[in-house]
Design brief:
Structural class of chain A: alpha/beta
Strand order of the largest sheet of chain A: 1-3-2-4-6-5-10-11-9-7-8
CATH superfamily of chain A: Amidase signature (AS) domain
Strand content of chain A: 5-15%
CATH topology of chain A: Amidase signature (AS) enzymes
Number of strands of chain B: 16
Strand order of the largest sheet of chain B: 2-6-7-10-1-11-12-13-14
Strand content of chain B: 15-25%
Bound molecules: zinc ion
Largest sheet of chain B: 9 strands, mixed
Oligomer: heterodimer
CATH class of chain A: Alpha Beta
Distance between the termini of chain A: 15 Å
Radius of gyration of chain A: 21 Å
Shape of chain A: globular
Structural class of chain B: alpha+beta
């Protein structure tokens, strides 16, 4: 078997036994990248030298531990090649956010999640493509061009963490980090037959995650199976004093819950998640997956979340308002693209005019408008009020059920170019993934099957800080379906 | 002025840098003044992509203490907000400040009003924010120094309760005194640690509606505050007298030209698009926290003035002079404890010592004379060892060298001569040497008595006991001689 096809936990076992080395594994992944990147274009930056150095360091730790018989105490991600979405700061490794604005920006510091990965001894292979500043659904809004879906390279891998998803589906990394503001981990995971988690807001530190919408952004793990996703989650989750919005509560261990037993788990299926605008093929695959959970002993009941239809306007008002401020720092004074100009105002205007792409500009303008005097109450403030209602609606639902299940995306991966022609419809593809972000609750995407050869994801939504139940249910489904074992043909 | 009488209505906005060890939202040192440019910076205060702010608890505590000293209510729940605008010295493109739900609000301070009576100036709010960086202009370029960016800044907003430039000036002085008493800010305007903006409007006395309000920004000294307001009031009255209307503008103050100038018109006013800072959780401030901070408050100037008036019999004005600086007040009290004649100590402190401090331009804490040494000096006067004039020169010596008064008196042989026999010889000599003056005195020119005193003092190099000399001279001049 080719090493790059391994899951992280399989590779971990082989590394510990000494049957493979981290350098061999990393080299295999780097060769794979070289072979498939011309078609897939998952990465913005690949860093073979630093990756191999990290792998060599991991091998030293592994052999030292093997000599002293302490391999079982080694961190689980030691020597595992990982792809990092290019909105997460990596010291010494350029972090472009998919933008011309930061094309040559090299952070002098690591994001907290990256620091945790380095402490594990994980091997950072490179930085993956993203819609510019994570604003998009398909990586088509990247200044570096779109990534392709390995299941059908004429189609998008989803977004904005599409680069990480494409890299995993094409075996260009074993695990990956994405970020989810309104579905950007879950939707590409669904489009590429992967497992992706949006953790509870505040569960994973945002320090070093380049901000799109601060009250919605969360870094999330992406993986080829549930166990890998859980391993990565356990590494990145936890309190961080550098992020004031991070939650102090300790992280509940996930692995003990991965036993396939979901008897008695109450699953709510919202009527609204199967209504108008949901592709019939997607709905059918998802219903089948839910039926399988029922056959495993879960209790399934229909529920209703009527505020779902308000979630798109609420999301876009809050996200763009926050983005309009978050992106103000790109003024060409301290770093990033800097235009030539004679006055400071010309400098600002030209720097931002040249540095940002059209979708980013669109959202900055929208958000600026929503915060303007005379509109603030009608837009931003009202959106915040509806946000509270949406949160409450979930709370009420979770009095009756333990998790909520439905599709991730209302559509199948679309052909590259579609977003550019249908920008308004593109906003609607977020319908099923933004309300969880608005409420700050965890949601996970797990492979549910295929329609016309394209992957479909099942979304599981949980109570705040109850990631464990999501992993438990997803793992049970994975055990009986094994959809995750399906690989793209090439 | 014209026929009508005018009333001026002034409100103040004061910014004061807080003396915390680190900056408002990061670990960088806030003590940047002498540091080379851009050396007190990190990802947070440089606004690198992905960096996040963390609230400096010491700055919150300092603000609550100020709020308490300004008789404010302390919010149980307070929110930071983003104030959005572009400027090269503002790294994030927004300033983290407070808008709705400031830390403290609804307070007051007492100042002396125009009529000499105590008057309250209401405080609308005192909140916490971060300072900007600095621009340095060199050869047609603007260089950005971010050492100051993120230094905690306290903003104190008053109601429009002041009615003259003098009241505004006294209000500022009062704030500075309180901030210094609390030890939360140097409040040094000349060094930019305290900055001030005034808003003012003018209306004919008796008119109910307010006149057009203008703002004057960047008032960087006490003098600038007084001069700019005085100038602006005159300017506006002149406009109104000519039947014109005052424009709603933001002004700057040109210190050299001595006049205000328009910085921004109403149309150019910023829309700051405030919204709650999503990177920071709202602050929850418990009663216990507030009370524990209240317990750390020193005796504040108003209370101290009252006590000085009652305990030491000083007038309000005198007590005010002593209490304006906490260190001076403490020095005074220590001296009075060692030499329990409050008026005498007051006299020496505000006379000789203040004059010296002014000339040397040093604070009282840097002075070489201890309260105890002054007490010793005053006892030497009291027991007749030296006279007051000698004491003055001994004090000068003490200020210059830090020596004890006894040491100086002994070393220079300055002890007063009270021995009547010795002094009588001197008096006799003087009288014998000046028969003309003696005659004129006896003919009625009694004013010459002081001249004779001076002659004796000079002959004894100031050491003669003046009372004894006076007695002896009277005997001789009034007698048959
Ligand atoms: Zn800093």
């Amino acid at each position: 078997m080719e090493l790059y096809r391994l899951t992280a936990h399989e590779a971990r076992d082989l590394l510990r036994k000494g049957e493979i080395t981290a350098v061999e594994l990393t080299e295999a992944v780097l060769r794979r990248i070289e072979a498939v990147e011309p078609q897939v274009r998952a990465y913005i930056t690949v860093s073979p030298d630093t990756a191999l150095a990290q792998a060599a360091a991991a091998d030293q730790r592994l052999s030292a531990a093997r000599r002293s018989g302490e391999v079982d105490t080694l961190p689980p991600l030691l020597g595992i090649p990982i792809a990092v979405k290019d909105v997460i700061s990596t010291r010494g490794l350029r972090t472009t956010c998919g933008s011309r604005m930061l094309e040559r920006y090299i952070p002098p510091y690591d994001a907290t999640v990256v620091r945790r990965l380095r402490a594990q001894g994980a091997v950072i292979v490179g930085k993956t493509n993203t819609d510019e500043f994570a604003m998009g659904w398909s990586t088509e809004n990247s200044a570096f061009g779109p990534s392709r879906n390995p299941w059908d390279i004429t189609r998008v891998p989803g977004g904005s963490s599409g680069g990480s998803a494409a890299a995993l589906a094409a075996d260009e990394a074993l695990i990956a980090l994405g970020s989810d503001t309104g579905g950007s981990v879950r939707q590409p995971a669904a489009f590429c037959n992967l497992v992706g988690l949006r953790p509870t807001y505040g569960r994973v530190s945002r320090y070093g995650l380049v901000a799109f919408a601060s009250s919605l952004d969360q870094i999330g793990p992406m993986a080829k199976d549930v166990l890998d996703c859980a391993l990565l989650y356990e590494v990145i989750a936890g309190h961080d004093p550098h992020d004031s919005t991070s939650i102090a509560q300790p992280v509940e261990p996930v692995l003990p819950a991965l036993n396939g037993d979901i008897r008695g788990v109450r699953i709510g299926v919202p009527r609204e998640y199967f209504g108008e605008g949901i592709h019939a093929g997607v709905a059918e695959v998802v219903r089948r997956a839910i039926a399988q959970l029922e056959s495993l002993g879960a209790h399934v009941e229909e529920i209703t979340l009527p505020l779902t239809r308000h979630s798109i306007p609420v999301y876009y008002l809050i996200a763009t308002a926050e983005a309009s401020a978050n992106l103000a720092r790109y003024d060409g004074v301290r770093y990033g693209h800097s235009a030539t100009a004679t006055t400071i105002w010309e400098h600002f205007t030209r720097t931002r005019g040249e540095g940002f792409g059209p979708e980013v500009k669109r959202r900055i303008i929208l958000g600026t408008y929503a915060l303007s005097a005379g509109y603030y109450e009608a837009y931003y403030l009202r959106a915040q009020k509806v946000r509270t209602l949406i949160r409450r609606e979930f709370e009420q639902a979770f009095e009756r059920v333990d998790i909520i299940a439905g599709p991730v995306a209302p559509v199948l991966p679309w052909p590259i170019g579609w977003v550019m022609e249908n920008p308004v419809q593109a906003y609607l593809t977020d319908l099923l993934t933004v309300s969880q972000a608005i409420a700050g609750i965890p949601a996970l995407s797990v492979p549910a099957g295929f329609h016309e050869g394209l992957p479909v994801g099942l979304q599981l939504v949980g109570r705040p800080l109850d990631e464990v139940t999501l992993f438990r249910v997803a793992y049970a489904l994975e055990q009986v379906t094994e959809w995750h074992r399906q690989r793209p043909t090439q | 002025m014209g026929q009508r009488e005018y009333e001026v209505i002034i409100g103040m906005e004061v910014h004061a840098q807080l003396l915390t060890r680190s900056k408002m939202f990061c670990g960088c040192s806030a003590d940047y003044v002498d540091a080379p440019p851009n050396t007190h910076v990190c990802p947070v205060c440089m606004a690198l992509p992905g960096a996040l702010p963390v609230i400096n608890r010491a700055a919150v505590e300092a603000t609550i203490r100020v709020g308490l000293a300004l008789n404010c209510e302390i919010a149980p729940f307070s929110v930071f907000a983003r104030k959005n605008y572009f400027y090269p010295d503002l790294p994030k493109g927004y300033q983290i400040s407070q808008y709705e739900l400031p830390l403290t609000y609804n307070g007051w301070v007492e100042i002396e009003g125009n009529d000499g009576q105590p008057k309250r100036v209401r405080i609308r709010r005192a909140h916490l924010e971060e300072d900007t960086g600095k621009l340095v202009h060199v050869n047609g370029y603007s260089l950005v120094d971010l050492n100051r960016a993120g230094v905690p800044l306290l903003e104190i907003v008053s109601e429009a309760d002041m009615r003259s430039a003098e009241e505004a000036h006294r209000y500022l002085l009062k704030l500075r005194t309180i901030l210094r008493y609390l030890g939360v800010s140097t409040a040094d305007m000349e060094k930019g640690a305290m900055r001030c903006e005034a808003n003012l409007s003018v209306r004919p006395r008796g008119q109910q509606t307010l006149g057009t309000k203008v703002e004057i920004k960047n008032l960087n000294s006490f003098k600038a505050v007084r001069d700019a307001i005085t100038y602006e009031v005159k300017r506006q009255i002149a406009i109104l007298e000519q039947g014109g209307t005052v424009e709603q503008v933001t002004l700057g103050w040109d210190e050299h030209a001595g006049r205000t100038f328009v910085q921004r018109t109403k149309e150019e006013a910023h829309d700051y698009r405030y919204f709650p800072e999503p990177d920071l959780l709202p602050l929850e401030i418990s009663r216990e926290w507030v009370e524990s901070l209240r317990a750390t408050l020193p005796e504040l100037p108003d209370a101290k003035i009252q006590r000085f008036m009652q305990t030491y019999g000083l007038s309000r004005k005198e007590a005010d002079i002593i209490a304006v600086e906490r260190e001076v007040a403490e020095w005074y009290e220590t001296a009075v404890a060692a030499y329990p004649h409050p008026r005498e100590v007051y006299h020496w402190l505000t006379g000789e010592i203040f004059r010296y401090l002014n000339e040397a331009n040093i604070p009282i804490t840097a002075m070489k004379v201890t309260p105890d040494a002054l007490a010793e000096l005053l006892r030497l006067v009291e027991d007749g060892t030296i006279n007051r004039n000698t004491a003055k020169s001994v004090l000068q010596e003490m200020l210059a060298t830090g020596q004890r008064p006894r040491t100086i008196v002994d070393a220079k042989g300055l002890a007063q001569v009270s021995d009547e026999a010795a002094l009588r010889a001197v008096v006799d000599e003087i009288i014998a040497a000046h028969p003309d003056e003696v005659r004129r005195y006896r003919e009625g020119k009694k004013g010459l008595f002081g001249w004779f005193m001076g002659q004796v003092m000079r002959a004894t190099r100031g050491k003669a006991n003046p009372a004894t000399v006076k007695k002896l001279l009277s005997e001789r001049l009034e007698g048959d001689g």
